[in-house]
């Protein structure tokens, strides 16, 4: 487990970019945190580091957006609307095993679909009235343990 605190929207994007430098095909990142925690903001930074020029916006209504103009494809998912199930119909396994990196917002709603290994990233709002956020990285499996070690080195 690795904890890292930031104090601005821009710093969250830089953190996402640092992760974006390290991701490999087939990586799965599960981003947890309340509404407005900064999950999409983090993903924007990650996309920038992949060289994706398009504007990354929340896929809340489409559930999945694919960006293919970067170093790796980015599969950005927001499954908030699956609060009452339906995640088994999305074909997530194909994304998770695909050539890109999958970033999932609200993964707790598709817990039955989680792959065996993943990087869980929890974002805690440490105060309601400022831009402070605590990121907690919890790797599951050797690949993600290595990724988090590289991230610690890079920061
Ligand atoms: N340190 C911070 N990191 C990220 N966002 C921050 C930070 N401080 C303030 N913000 C603001 O909080 C909001 C975060 O919005 P964002 O869409 O990234 O959240 P989210 O976790 O994706 O929410 P949702 O669950 O609705 O998808 C933005 O308005 C952003 O400017
Ligand atoms: Mg979001």
UniProtKB/TrEMBL annotation:
> InterPro entries in the record, alphabetically?
P-loop_NTPase, T6A_TsaE
Does the keyword field hold Cell membrane? Answer: no
The UniProt keywords, alphabetically, are: ATP-binding, Cytoplasm, Magnesium, Metal-binding, Nucleotide-binding, tRNA processing
Q: Where in the cell is it found?
A: Cytoplasm
SUPFAM superfamilies on file: P-loop containing nucleoside triphosphate hydrolases
Its family remark reads: Belongs to the TsaE family.
PANTHER family hit by this protein? TRNA THREONYLCARBAMOYLADENOSINE BIOSYNTHESIS PROTEIN TSAE
Q: What is this protein called?
A: tRNA threonylcarbamoyladenosine biosynthesis protein TsaE
The species this protein belongs to is Loigolactobacillus binensis
């Amino acid at each position: 487990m690795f904890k890292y605190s930031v104090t601005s929207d821009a710093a969250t994007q830089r953190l996402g970019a640092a992760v974006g430098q390290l991701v490999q095909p087939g990586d799965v990142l599960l981003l947890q945190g309340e509404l407005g925690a900064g999950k999409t903001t983090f993903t924007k930074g990650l996309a920038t580091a992949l060289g994706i020029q398009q504007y990354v916006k929340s896929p809340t209504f489409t559930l999945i957006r694919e960006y293919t103009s970067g170093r790796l494809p980015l599969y950005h998912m927001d499954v908030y609307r699956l609060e009452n199930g339906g995640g088994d119909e999305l074909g997530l396994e194909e994304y998770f095993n695909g050539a890109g990196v999958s970033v999932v917002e609200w993964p707790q709603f598709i817990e039955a679909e989680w792959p065996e290994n993943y990087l869980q990233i929890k974002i805690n709002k440490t105060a309601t009235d400022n831009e402070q956020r605590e990121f907690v990285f919890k790797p599951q499996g050797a690949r993600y343990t290595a990724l988090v070690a590289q991230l610690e080195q890079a920061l």
